[in-house]
Amino acid sequence: MNPLALFSSFSNLPSIETRKALLLLDFQNDFVRPNGRLPVRKTLDFIDLIPGLVQSFRRTGEIVWVRTQYEGSRPVVDDYGSEIIITSAGPLDTKNQKKGRHGRQENRSDVNDVVDPEAFLSGPEPACLPQTAGVQFPAPILAAIDHDHDIVIEKSDYSALQSPGMVLSLRSRFVTELYICGSLSNVSVYATALDAAQQGFAITLIEDCMGYRSFARHEEAVRRLADIVGANGISVQELLEEEDWEETHEIAHASTAHPAASQPKPLTQSNMTPPPSGIENVLDHLAVQNSPITKRSSIAESVATPSPNTTVYSTGIIEADDNPYDDDDVPIVLPPSKYSRARGTREARTSGTNQTRVRRTKSGKSPSSSRRPGSSAAESVTLGRASTSPVLTTTSHKAPNDVSPGSSALKSLPSPPIAEASYAKKKKKIANDYLGPDDSIAEGDSRIVYNLDLPTDAFEKIQKEVNWQKMYHLSGQVPRLVAVQGLIARDKSFPIYRHPADESPILELFTKTVDAVRICAEQIVGHPLNHALIQLYRDGQDNISEHSDKTLDIVRGSSIVNVSLGAQRVMTLRTKKSAPTDGEDGRHKQQVPMPHGSMFILGPQSNTRWLHGIRPDKRPESEKSHEEKAYNGERISLTFRNIGTFINPERGTIWGQGAVSKRADAARKVIHGDASEAERLIRAFGSENRETEFDWDAVYGRGFDVVNFVEPAVAHLTLSGDPIADMRVRLCLTENGMRYIAQPRKTRDIQQIVYTSPDRNTVITGDIQILLYLASLDPNSELARPGVDVVRGGNHLIQITQLGTAWHEYLLSGSNAEFGLLSSWNERLREADQHYIAGQALTIDDIALWPILHQIEIQKGAISGSSRYPYLSTYYQRIEKRGCVRVVMNEIAHERGC
Prior knowledge:
By secondary structure, the protein is an alpha+beta fold. Helix content is 31%, strand content 17%. The chain folds into 3 domains: 19-239, Isochorismatase-like (Rossmann fold, 3-Layer(aba) Sandwich); 447-700, Alpha-ketoglutarate-dependent dioxygenase AlkB-like (Jelly Rolls); 714-895, Glutathione S-transferase Yfyf (Class Pi), Chain A, domain 2, CATH 1.20.1050.130. The chain is built from 26 helices and 30 strands. The strands form 7 sheets. Strands 11, 12, 13, 15, 16, 18, 21 and 23 form an 8-stranded mixed β-sheet that branches. Helix 8 (185-198) packs parallel to helix 9 (215-228) and helix 10 packs across helix 13. It is globular. The termini are far apart.
């Protein structure tokens, strides 16, 4: 072939727009449920983030849900003796590792002798057994899956890329970047990331969507992935902001792109070769050559020979995995990740039209390398020798408007400065696009009403009169306080509103102020409101992900009313992904400020076609308005609905619009915790959340009789009135994730706090005795909460008890002198040089000590921030920031009416 013709054919190669994929690993009942075989800690921290994450990610990438099903024992080391999963917190011991097959067999034998519980596919008691509840996804995950568009696969190994055809499937979609999260960071996430690096994928870990049972193992796994394979880290919030930027940036490109077709140029020596079209011609130029099958290199070898990872800029050269429309066209600065040590920083391209970037893959291998179809994940086909040369290149000497014949289907690379200006204009428009009472909102059947005629001091009155409850979701506690109120009939029947949660709080009769707000709302909306979900938000960080209200139980045709009291927040509305777009602005978005005393009415058509939510407000206080900082940032949300489904608690029956039986005289028994019925209902909820043209009769018409998805186990406390003793037990139960109901003592005969177990079989008196009992619980005990490490310790309780006695005597003496024992405890903490009394982990000793220090701080103000007792001050503030302390302090404050 003529060299010029060959060169011309390369110059006319189309640019391939690569994609990214989000891998969600092992969010299954065995890991995220309290009663699972291997429950992880604090699942609430990441489970609640996932629906919003996947909903946003679908716009620009592939969603891949991966669940494990046990088919046989799997090794925990590879052929070279390197760990596939992390089951120890220390570094790898490479001295005794043996290479080759013989070494692998010896390692397997050693591993099988004592199998770590987290090696859930390798021991005698595996997790994710077929046809068990543990292998299934929980309710919130099922609701988040879009079965029409998402990919759902099953794996039988620790790594998701071991699944047959998985790598090939990603390659066929031109996926070059993997965003990974999962329930066990040191097991499936770690194993999958290792395989992904071997395949040349760029890896980003979603830091706050990774579960773990041991923080040390989690930290070690993340460290290795950052140092060895160059994994980046990103938070969900950062990723959502990046997704919003990319969506806006695509709009900017679309609006500034050149026409797709132009007049053909006269044939010359440089363009006489017909341009290729379609992926077949792209593949013709991929530099593929045969190579022997190689095994995965050991981690030790990877560390010894790090791959080049330098970002290089070159004129007119673009690699196959380089997306000319990705977010590097315009400078964007994200907060640095603590896990990005091994990766090069993201840089902006230069503004020249022919300046494009060459992205080199790890180990110099092309991202186009893939495993042979049907081969195991341990085997990969390399494309030639390690090289820094691009696999697919194109050199352009044309002016921006010169488009060759036949390239009408190709996009032109727009000028970055124009895109940047368009992006800035779009962001400014969004920021100022707030709607008010005179604007058309959503489908036109929604509106915002200001300055309601509400009772004086409605916020304070509701805060005091409502019986706030803690809501538990999966194995964690929701950080906000909630209450459910409604109208209760003479036969004790009450309305029931069901939505994707594991439990429904107990409904109580409308309190005086809430009922006054309800009557005011009824007069405006024009129909009855018999049910209210009341939520107390602590600050601007509390948020609600975008969703549609579930209309199974809401009277059809009625509106949903939200009354806002306290600090102002902004309601965000966005059309569903399935909604038709006009091709220019994409999904429509609206923002509606909700100040104190306002009422937002969500019409039925708006709820069907739009999603609504409240995003966290992470701006500094200095940038917030007076309305946004009012009431110390707290907000009470009252969501009123007209409910058409009812429960009779005495008969245990259910009937009405959303039930199987529509009439009270034919009411059926309520179903509690039935897995198949719960899954059917969750799938129905998921359909309503996704579909713009939702067919209510087809999905909900048959009715559902299932209510709570789990049966709660709640302990009972009879408080003593001693603030130190009562706080100790509350802190211990909260830290252990154990639910409880606290009641004040009814008689003066009760001098000590009393604990009664959920099964009522155990009654213990005295705070220290209760702490010791809870610390002695077996992790597998029915009283212990699965997935949460039981707080242990107790070796320092004698000295702590002596401190408490001395403080009590000091108060009785009425002395104004300094409490002398603080110096000795400051010195004790200085000598220990540890986070907590007994080491690096919180124990019941800390739980016993901190309430004493807290009372001293209240009375004397001598600890927090003290330069005299710096070690005691640091210790006090460290525990004060723990979640259990914040929850208990809020609970106590509300009980006192503060």
